[in-house]
Amino acid sequence: MFSCDIAKQIGGAYNLSQCKYDYNSINNIEIAGVNLGKSKSLSIADIATLSTILGGGSLQNIPFSMVLNLDVLNPNEKAAYLNGLDYEIELNNMEFANGKLDVPLRIEPGETSVLPLSIGIDLKNLINRYSKDRVATEMSRFLGISPGETKVSVKLWPKVLIGDVPIKAPTYIPVTFVFGGGK
Hints:
This protein is of the alpha+beta class and about 180 residues long. It contains four helices and eleven strands; from the N terminus they run αββαββββββααβββ. The strands form three sheets. Strands 5, 6, 9, 10 and 11 form a five-stranded antiparallel beta sheet that branches. Strands 2-1-3-8 form a four-stranded antiparallel beta sheet. Strands 4-7 form a two-stranded antiparallel sheet.
C-alpha cells in the first residue's frame, strides 16, 4: 500500500511537470507599508513615496510582499497533483525571493487552476547583496514606475510525501514571463 501511494504521488508530480504554466496576476502588493492593492497600477503619490523608498532612504528594512498567481493547465489524461513545493523567483537574473507552498494542489485533466505564490522579503537584504541602484532599477521596472522589461523566472520544485516526510523533486519546473518593454 505504501509503495502504491508513492507511485501515485510521483505520477501526479510527473503530470504536474507536463502542465502548461502562465502568468495570471499579482495582487496584495505592499512595500514599506504602502499597500498597492490588487494591481500594479500606482497613484502619483504612491510613485513619489516608492521612488523615495527605493532610492535607499535611511530605512533599516524595506519589507515587500505580494502574491504571484500562476495559471496551471493540465493537458494530461490523469490528474496532476502535489503535496507542496519549493520555489525561487528571479527578476532580470537577480535572485529575488524563495519560499514554500505547503498546501496540496490537484488539477484535473483539461482543467486550469491558480497556483498562488506568497512572497515576503526585505529589499534591504537585496540591496546589501547586489546594490541600491540595481535593486531600485529592477523594482522600479517591475512595479511599472520606470520603463523597461522585467524578465520573471520562476523555478518550481514539487514535493511528494514519503511517510510524513516531504521530499523535493531533484529537478525544477521552469516558468518565465516578461513585464514591460511596450509589448
